[in-house]
Amino acid sequence: MPHLNDLYRTATRVIGNRTEAEDLVQEAYLQAWKSFHRFESGTNCRAWLFKILFHVIQHHRRKMYNSKLVQDFRKDSWEAGEADALP
Q1: 83/75 Cα distance (integer angstroms)
Q2: Closest CA to 53 of 20, 29, 22
Q3: Is the pLDDT assigned to residue 5 strictly greater than 70?
Q4: CA-to-CA distance for 35 and 49, rounded, in angstroms?
Q5: Which one, of 53, 47, 61, 2, lies nearest residue 30 by Cα?
Q6: What is d(CA 67, CA 52) in angstroms, rounded to the nearest whole number?
Q7: pTM of the predicted structure, to 2 decimals
Q8: Three-class HEC string of 26-65
Q9: Residue of higher predicted confidence among 72 and 3
Q10: Coil, strand, or helix at residue 66?
Q11: SS3 13
Q12: How is the chain split among helix, strand and coil, in percent rounded to 5?
């Protein structure tokens, strides 16, 4: 797979976790495969893959941030005695 090592190295530096970086690079390649019909021949494939990777990383970070907010909300609600009101 072209540029795999560069993508993995970058994801590891950005995320800080090798296992998560592997998953994110795999997800980026999967998305690239699914959208390959939109790749314009003659353009920079490496740049295209990195753009996809950074979108995947951004989505991952957003998901982790939102998950933390929900967990914090539930923890605060539990401590305030509002646990019965949660779905």
Answers
A1: 9
A2: 29
A3: yes
A4: 11
A5: 53
A6: 22
A7: 0.73
A8: HHHHHHHHHCHHHCCCCCCHHHHHHHHHHHHHHHHHHHHH
A9: 3
A10: helix
A11: helix
A12: 80, 0, 20
- In this predicted model, which residue has the larger pLDDT, 64 or 47? 47
47-52, Cβ contacts within 8 angstroms, sequence gap of 24 or more: 49/2, 49/3, 49/7, 50/3, 50/6, 50/7, 50/10, 52/28
Single-letter code of the amino acid located at 54 = F
Residue type, 68: K
Tokens of 53: 């990777």
Amino acid sitting at position 75: K
What does CATH list as the number for 4-36+43-77?
A: 1.10.1740
Which is more confidently placed, 83 or 68?
Answer: 68
